[in-house]
Amino acid sequence: HRVEKLKIQVLSTMLADRGIGEWGFAAMVEADGRRILFDTGARPDTVLQNARELRVDLSNVTDVILSHNHQDHTGGLMALRKDVMGRNREALSRAHVGKGMFADRGTAYILKIKPEYEAAGGKFVEHDKPAEIAPGVWLTGVVPRVHPERNWSGSGTIRTGEGSIEDNIPEDMSLVIVTARGLVVLAGCGHAGIVNTLEHARKTIRNEPVHAAIGGFHLFQANDETLRWTAQKLREFGTQSFLGAHCTGIEATYKLRELLGLGRKTAAVGAVGAVFELGKEMGPGSIAR
Predict the structure, then answer these.
(1) What is the pLDDT along the chain (289 residues), one digit of tens a residue?
(2) DSSP character at residue 21
(3) DSSP class of residue 3?
(4) Alpha helices, H only, 101-223
(5) Is 201 within 8 Å of 229 (Cβ atoms)?
(6) Are 175 and 141 in contact (CB under 8 A)?
(7) Is the distance from CB of 82 to CB of 92 less than 8 angstroms?
(8) Crossing angle for the helix pair 194-204 and 224-236, nearest 10 degrees?
(9) 10: phi then psi, degrees, rounded to nearest 5
């Protein structure tokens, strides 16, 4: 199946002239009528308030995807669930996560809210491999770290029976939408690496060009050599559009636009309210134009 109508709207990121900006990420995905919330922002009420201002109704959204365990992607989960469940008991009641989401990280925020979400009728669905959650809409599951992209802080640890190991955010996963124009990939932070993620999607879901890469890709601290290598791989994947939000970095986004030979209509920094719609000119948000 190929999705024919696709709209992705950013509900949480740093830049904003509508709503509230924060260090976090969330986006609403509408694919052939199916609506999915991708990540929930950092502060409890950011996505809630931004959705109201942007007139995005969350009460008929059943599924939410949590790209990884960090609070800047999971912080709004409980506030959102409590707000919508009075109008629709099934709203935001199913949360998709990657295997490793609930690893023992001590005081990790997701471990605190897991019992609260389940007590409120929510259910976590864990994925370790690609899964089609709607026609043409896929989760990558856990992404193999083929290329040495170290897109995480390196400061965290996971407790195991054999001692503590470095936390490389093993559960990090992205959303892949198959369209007639190619793959549209939505990431929260891309801790697994944008190249690893896109390569995995093309290998396991559909071996087609990348029509668009959208979201956070944790490149804000990447040096020029890393950005040149990343751009080379994106060119090999046939990447046609790029909307960098959250931890992608403003400078990194502009550098990739230059290296990829894209323009303002096909590569931009995303702000709150930014829209990617299949077959239409990209709207990064007025503040980011």
Answers:
(1) 999 999 999 999 999 989 999 999 999 999 999 999 999 999 999 999 999 999 999 999 999 999 999 999 999 999 999 999 999 999 999 999 999 999 999 888 999 999 999 999 999 999 999 999 999 999 999 999 999 998 887 788 999 988 899 999 999 999 999 999 999 999 999 999 999 999 999 999 999 999 999 999 999 999 999 999 999 999 999 999 999 999 999 999 999 999 999 999 999 999 999 999 999 988 888 777 7
(2) -
(3) B
(4) 109-119, 194-204
(5) no
(6) no
(7) no
(8) 20
(9) -75, 130
Tokens standing for 12?
A: 């949480």
Task: Compute CA distances 280 → 6, 7, 95, 266, 277, whole Å.
Answer: 10, 10, 30, 10, 6
The tokens describing 25, both together, are 């990420």
Return the closest-CA partner of residue 137 out of 10, 29, 24, 259. Answer: 29
Q: Copy the structure tokens of residue 199.
A: 């390569």
Whether 31 and 177 have beta carbons less than 8 Å apart is answered as yes
Residue with tokens 């990064």: 284
Residue 216 CA to residue 279 CA, distance in Å, equals 22
Rounded Cα gap, residues 57 and 22, in angstroms: 21
What pTM, to 2 d.p., does this model score?
Answer: 0.97
- What the block records as the tokens of 162 is 């054999």
